[in-house]
Amino acid sequence: MNWKGMVAGLGLLSLFFINAKAQEKISEAGKYNFNYGWKLNVGEVATAQNSDFNDQTWKGVNLPFAWNQNEAFKVAIDHLSTGIAWYRKTFQLPKDAIDKKVFIEFEGVRQMGEVYVNGTLVGLHENGAMAFGLDLTPYVKPYPQVNVIAVKTNNDWKYREKATNSTFQWNDKNFNANYGGLPKNVFLHIKSKVYQTLPLYSFLKTTGTYVYATDFDIPQKKATVNVLSQVKNETSAAVKAQLKVSVLDLEGKEVAVFLGETSSLKPNETIEIKASKGLNNLNFWSWGYGYLYTVTSELLVDNQSVDKTVIKTGFRKAEFKNGMVYLNDRVIMMHGYAQRTSNEWPSVGMSVPAWMSDYSNSLMVKSNGNLVRWMHITPWKQDVESCDRVGLIQAMPAGDSEKDVEGRRWEQRTELMRDAIIYNRNNPSILFYESGNESISEDHMKQMKAFKEQYDPFGGRAIGSREMLDSKVAEYGGEMLYINKSKHIPFWATEYSRDEGLRKYWDEFTPPFHKEGTGGTSHENVNGTKVADASPYNHNQDAHAIESVTRWYDYWEMRPGTGDRVNSGGVNIIFSDSNTHFRGQENYRRSGEVDPMRIPKDGFYAHQVIWDGWVDTEKPAAHIIGHWNYEKGVKKAVTVVSTADVVELFVNGKSVGKGIQDKKFLFAFKDIAFQAGTIKAIGYDKTGKEVCQDEIKTAGKPTSLKLTSIARPAGMLANANDLALIQVEVVDDKGNRCPTAMDMIQFEVSGEGTYVGGIAQGPDNYIGSKNLPVECGVNRIMVRSTDKAGVITIKATAKSLKTAVITVKTIATDLSALSTNLPNENLASYLEKGPTPNTSSFTKTRNAVAIIGAKTNSNQADAQKSFDDNELSEWTNGDGAARIEYELAQEVKINQVVMKLAGWRSKQYPIRILVDGKKVFEGNTPTSLGYVTLDIPTPVKGKKVTIELIGTSKDSNEINLVEITGKVDEGGLKQTKSKMPQLPIVEVEFYEALR
């Protein structure tokens, strides 16, 4: 066998002697990268668990590696291959591991994993979502003997728990892309027999080390750092133990060393020991400021160091009160993305190197998103740690589908939440624990909250669930598509703006001339019904971006600073196009603000503008939607997204007027005739001062291809698993991208790399094809390194265009079976947004007026429900007159009335409002995603406000939203037998202008 083949296999005994030097001693922290040197066989093999089984014909792979990952985006989620696959690996322990504890940590197996060591079954893991650990000590052989680990996996969609015959609620064909086998990292831990445990509760029943801060003084940059470590004594003698803690800053400078109190441990006893110290000059973790400290917890036994645990963490203060979220004492309105937990890429699924997780997640921050709500399934540790580095707040679910459950399936959810909290409680980016993707009972919410209070009492996190609008237990909530308000726990929308749009389609005037809404679909909803109207799922880029901005305004209008009851934001579904449930023309979800290769769509830049701030706009900006390369004679509407008060458009330096603003942030310019050159938008504030601008220039004729590489910042690793993104653009003679180019590109890869590919619209989505087109002038492919350091050469050619060539250098790394180079090593934090500002994040816009009572001749008993801060209760008139009078706490000039009326998105109510008997408003209420704001043109001073219905409500289809079930949500409308027109008031609020 040649040397290259031996390294690729990474499973031969000779390799262990070649790499023996790396295994002579236990690494300082006793943690090893266990990803290298696995063998894979797809299909059942009766004796594959046996040590003497011959696996030489099996495929050599390095983890993370899902055996069906090459199908990602090629087939729809429900067509991903399933079945049994075996993974095997041979390894030796270090020479000085005699009489040590040996643990293995799997970040996850999909769906089931039977783990065998030297032919013996060690454990069966079945939930398919969470990390787990096993004690291998009784089963491994000491150096120089060879050990064999074998893992049998099964990713059957209908897999049932062996002990109970129960399915798992989250093993779902709609949202949980099924990348089978070992798609995540694996680690080996070697510890002394008195040791700090691992945070892996299932199987091991241990909780690890908990690092948290208390006694925050944000202005003075002070806090107390606490380390609470679970220690286990597996010797036959009593010992005395204490913690020695060192804290290093982001530059590796030691900022503190301190000792905890000495504790005694009896033989086979497990206790928790603690060390604490107040620290000064701390850099607090924040949005877009992933400042992390390295906390090393060293276990001293009888004054001798025996064990170390190294934790990367950050310190930050979080509070959840007054209907708002506070980060480091500053209010932050949530705006970001409900992202599929698989976070997948074409051809490789979720199994990407850690730097690519950083690249993808940092783009969310660069779009000015501050929150990622992972959907349904707890995220894998690589993404959790990545969000720490890039400064992206996380909402961490456990596992569910779309409803509350009972019995064993509920127990599975609680076990998963418990394990996820223990495993991830040191990660500062997690601010929310999500107990369900649908409301859960109060008893179930109490159970989930008890886990948080038991295992993460000091983490500064809120636990809640979707909805929970009247819960007395949940610490946050919020519906899926609608605006909720609260003056107590924060409410933010868990997903909104479901629409989809392919990156390939600019607008109706650009090849391939995609008319808005066309495409059709034969896809079914979750409940089996057909998608009746596919237009919202077949947008072009213009319409998709405009819809995202339109939907956000309803949340922003009810933001912090607008009263005592506020909305705390929401997350757009989704960030990157996903190999999951879809309702458009393609076989994957295209709701992303970037495509599957993370190339931005126009919606990405639109969000950069509207989300530029913690609450209020902090840096005015503008973005012209679309491009400026059309045929002569084209006239089109130009839309500018801007946070300026006024926007003026210029074509080749000549003004074409001020934009018409029918919705906040959107400025429309109708019938703009194309002229080659420059189109510029300038934004002004209320005084006429220029505050922002954007411009687009017409590109020339295509002449060349341009290649750019995006790779691991510290150098691409020669580990047969690292990836580089290669971007190809069609450019003019000045290097400008040609935005309408659709040329077919041929790729050649040579040297120490292999071709992986990209994605485009076409047969099999071009997955794996070495020929694929650019779309809107750009596309990307991936190349994979080999196990040999060297140079990868990528060549791109296209008809009538100048060829482009680029090289990527790969660097050697430790490829031994017990590698000391961890996957996230040397990855830098993203710090671009800087520390939390010490200024207010919003300016108060109005004063709320307290309501002290209400009178009505119709359902007086329910009158209070119309202002009780509970959106699941309401007053309506029933068989009586639709009229209700409110008494205010004091006499004021009312300038705005805000209401949530049942049927808010489909009903318009003709109403009249009177203040102390004088009419101040008469007209139809608009539709919305929840609340409507009615301006009083001429405020009248008074203490009593009357609202009455003066006609019959009218139906409106202005807001076209269809639930994932295929049903149209009625927006809280209830059936009534009354023949009287109804005025169902969910909540009403009155405001006066600031004095």
Automatic annotation (TrEMBL):
<feature type="domain" description="Glycoside hydrolase family 2 immunoglobulin-like beta-sandwich">
    <location>
        <begin position="214"/>
        <end position="316"/>
    </location>
</feature>
<dbReference type="Pfam" id="PF18565">
    <property type="entry name" value="Glyco_hydro2_C5"/>
</dbReference>
<feature type="domain" description="Glycosyl hydrolases family 2 sugar binding">
    <location>
        <begin position="49"/>
        <end position="158"/>
    </location>
</feature>
<comment type="similarity">
    <text>Belongs to the glycosyl hydrolase 2 family.</text>
</comment>
<feature type="signal peptide">
    <location>
        <begin position="1"/>
        <end position="22"/>
    </location>
</feature>
<dbReference type="InterPro" id="IPR017853">
    <property type="entry name" value="GH"/>
</dbReference>
<feature type="domain" description="Glycoside hydrolase family 2 catalytic">
    <location>
        <begin position="320"/>
        <end position="457"/>
    </location>
</feature>
<dbReference type="InterPro" id="IPR006102">
    <property type="entry name" value="Ig-like_GH2"/>
</dbReference>
<dbReference type="InterPro" id="IPR006103">
    <property type="entry name" value="Glyco_hydro_2_cat"/>
</dbReference>
<dbReference type="InterPro" id="IPR008979">
    <property type="entry name" value="Galactose-bd-like_sf"/>
</dbReference>
<protein>
    <submittedName>
        <fullName>Sugar-binding domain-containing protein</fullName>
    </submittedName>
</protein>
<feature type="domain" description="DUF4982">
    <location>
        <begin position="634"/>
        <end position="692"/>
    </location>
</feature>
<dbReference type="Pfam" id="PF02836">
    <property type="entry name" value="Glyco_hydro_2_C"/>
</dbReference>
<dbReference type="Pfam" id="PF00703">
    <property type="entry name" value="Glyco_hydro_2"/>
</dbReference>
<dbReference type="Pfam" id="PF16355">
    <property type="entry name" value="DUF4982"/>
</dbReference>
<dbReference type="InterPro" id="IPR032311">
    <property type="entry name" value="DUF4982"/>
</dbReference>
<keyword id="KW-0326">Glycosidase</keyword>
<dbReference type="InterPro" id="IPR040605">
    <property type="entry name" value="Glyco_hydro2_dom5"/>
</dbReference>
<dbReference type="Pfam" id="PF02837">
    <property type="entry name" value="Glyco_hydro_2_N"/>
</dbReference>
<dbReference type="InterPro" id="IPR006104">
    <property type="entry name" value="Glyco_hydro_2_N"/>
</dbReference>
<dbReference type="InterPro" id="IPR013783">
    <property type="entry name" value="Ig-like_fold"/>
</dbReference>
<keyword id="KW-0732">Signal</keyword>
<feature type="domain" description="Glycoside hydrolase family 2">
    <location>
        <begin position="716"/>
        <end position="807"/>
    </location>
</feature>
<keyword id="KW-0378">Hydrolase</keyword>
<dbReference type="InterPro" id="IPR036156">
    <property type="entry name" value="Beta-gal/glucu_dom_sf"/>
</dbReference>
<dbReference type="InterPro" id="IPR051913">
    <property type="entry name" value="GH2_Domain-Containing"/>
</dbReference>
